[in-house]
Amino acid sequence: MDEKLEAQTFSRKRYIIAPDFQFKYVGIMLSTVLSTGLFIGGCVYLILMAVINKNLPFLDRRQLFADMIFSQANQFFLIALPLVLVIVVVMSIFVSHKISGPEYRIKRILDSMGRGDFAVPVKLRKGDELQLLADTLVEVNHNLSYMIKEQKLMVKELDASINAIARELKKNQPNCLKLLPLAGVLSSTSKKLKADFENLKILDV
């Protein structure tokens, strides 16, 4: 069993696992936050200007009041905006890791299954996304493992019957009473294997 693969089940420390997806996700979140912030800021600016123009009849007072308000607002945004962007980036990486981490793990499991290794445990960390997909993969893995186990037993029966027939035929006077049951086991087991394989749908490669 791949020890590194099993260790990743419990201690996935790298947060940038799928750079293309995660950086794209961060970009989407940043653009969403920035566009939303600009829209809200613009609306607030227009509302404040409307209120100032309505309640301050003198132009010099309007300008003084507006300069005071927007100077303080600009100072606030210069401090708050970088902090908000950093928080958005960190949270986006953390959230995208909850998706890309399990995706990476499931891909490794499927690669192992493709090489014939069905003993790799299908486990995700608590809080990971794609739990439903992982549960489905567990069910598929169990079904395939059970089917392979049954077919291994049938192959073992075939091998035992063939060896018994070979030993009997090596005798000077083979006993037909012993050969007939063995031949029946061969026929029955081969029919089971044939039925199992006929129920499988595979690609025409």
* Helical stretch tally: 5
Q: Structural class, judged by helices and strands?
A: mainly alpha
Write down the Rg: 35 Å
List the domain count as a whole number: 2
- Secondary-structure element order, N to C: HHHHH
The count of strands amounts to 0
Mean pLDDT over the full residue set: 80
Structure description:
It is a single chain. It contains five helices and no strands. The chain has helices spanning 3-7, 19-55, 59-114, 131-169, 176-198.
Topology:
Blueprint: H1 3-7, H2 19-55, H3 59-114, H4 131-169, H5 176-198
Task: Briefly summarize what is shown.
The chain has helices at residues 3-7, 19-55, 59-114, 131-169, 176-198. With 205 residues, the protein is mostly helical. The radius of gyration is 35 Å and the shape is rod-shaped.
Which structural traits does this protein have?
78% helix; 5 helices; mainly alpha; 205 residues; rod-shaped; disordered N terminus; 2 domains
